[in-house]
Design a protein that fits this description.
- This protein is an alpha/beta fold.
- The protein is built from 7 helices and 8 strands.
- It is globular and about 50 Å long.
């Protein structure tokens, strides 16, 4: 059995985001749609982690192949916590680093523009994020970290410093959404251990 992938979107994002949609389309082209999960994560970190723990219990089984986490932004922060807890490999895309230290002045009403959900960012959300902080990565070789220097939401240098012992892939320019994600899917699939013959002839930049 080939690899399974669990994709973790960021704050106020959704399975309908561009990267999630491109990954879902690509996995379907490979005939591996059933090996991918892209859950709609709850806005509260404790609920989101509970959702993800349930999916990891389902997917992290020998008969399903290798499980790889792919986390974007806040999803990268969640993926780091879960990779450490379960010994899983992870690809992190413009990941948030210590997000609980970044919400000063941002508590209050929030809106997810993908599904129009409105919710309240509270001090309890921030406390829950702090509970997930990983002080030291125990096996940096498990991680591949993709950063773009033009990220307008997060300073890529924070992730560069935190993940300095990991395999860093830093591109000049770009943005927080990570421009050119589809073109990098072969790198993701190779890392996940998906057989090359399944994806080598696909024009991934045209995936949408």
């Amino acid at each position: 059995m080939t690899a399974s992938i669990l994709y973790l979107h960021g704050l106020n994002s959704s399975p309908a985001s561009l990267k999630a949609s491109q990954l879902q389309s690509a996995m379907a082209q490979l005939g591996l749609a059933g090996q991918l999960r892209v859950p709609a994560l709850h806005h509260h970190p404790r609920v989101a982690i509970a959702q993800l723990e349930t999916l990891i219990a389902e997917l992290n089984r020998p008969e399903r192949g290798r499980l790889v986490l792919v986390g974007s932004s806040l999803g990268g922060y969640y993926a780091t916590f879960l990779a450490e807890r379960h010994g899983l490999p992870a690809v992190l895309i413009n990941p948030a680093v210590r997000p609980h230290l970044r919400f000063d002045g941002y508590l209050g009403p929030q809106k997810n523009h993908y599904n129009d959900e409105t919710w309240e960012l509270t001090a309890d959300h921030v406390a829950a994020l702090a509970e997930l902080d990983v002080a030291v990565l125990h096996d940096p070789a498990r991680y591949q970290v993709w950063l773009q220097t033009g990220d307008e939401t997060l300073d890529y240098r924070d992730a560069q410093a935190y993940y300095r012992a990991c395999a860093l892939r830093i591109q000049a320019g770009g943005d927080h959404g990570f421009q050119g994600f589809a073109a990098r899917l072969p790198m993701l699939f190779a890392f996940a251990g998906i057989p090359r013959h399944l994806w080598q002839d696909i024009d991934f930049p045209s995936v949408n």
